[in-house]
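Kindly review both lines to help learners:
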Amino acid sequence: MTNNIAFIFPGQGSQEVGMGQALSEKYPIADKVFAQADTLLGFPLSRLCFAGPEDELNDTINTQVAIFVTSMATFEVLKTVGYEVKPNYLAGHSLGEYTAFVVAGVLSFEDGLQLVRERGRLMKKAGELNPGSMAAILTLPDEQVAAICRQVVAEGQGNLQVANYNAPGQVVISGHEAAVERGIELARQAKARKAVKLPVSIAAHSELMGVIVDEFRQAIDNVPLHLPEIPIVANITGKPLDSLESVRAEMVGQLTASVRWTDSIHTMIEQGVTHFVEIGPKNVLTGLLRWIDKSVKGQPVRTPEDVVALMQME
């Protein structure tokens, strides 16, 4: 495999009951990461990942740490089996950015775990204080979806904004319940192939998360941060983070800002990246690559079989 490579880490929505179990059974290092997380968190996260129940796993306060720990366990397996390719870039989708922070040396695993747990707790709190929802809009141009959001706000339906620019023709909107419903209605009128609510109870990456910003900023200020040892391409700007100030601004701003995933991928491709390795549960980000640029290759790593396949690609 070429070393024009980026590691990408999934975010919320990639969770599934059973994630990480096969890796933990085959590789002691993965089992060790889960055991360490169980101890630090004070509850059996590993059991929740491996056996559910699904509704508890899908509660954002648990989902975020579950995906983070599963991704970190997978990354540690790659190091243990001798996968020595150093990525040129790292990027994580929303929550996945915290895995990138740990892999790049910005945070320790312990501090990353506690920050992710706090992020999940606070985002759940924000959802209770400012109830909202999210919806996926397929096949409409990005700007058209953004214009729909502006129209809904102008109509006085509440806050609505683009939460995720996941790929051309794959956009997620987020905001007040009535605003999301109206956005879906307008998207369908505009002939979107699909406009459907997502099974979430929070309005992530919207102004409704603003109520927790100060509290989360305090949590970040209590954690030592270091400059990235590998460039991390940011969600908010789609550009590499180049200072501790930009890292802090990304962590805080990410709560209410759009995830510009398409821009992030394009930035890495422009810098010569041709191969993307998705480290963590499912293969959502690998699937998005086909919508963004069919010329690049994606390889998900979720299972022992995926680890073997990746090693054979070197």
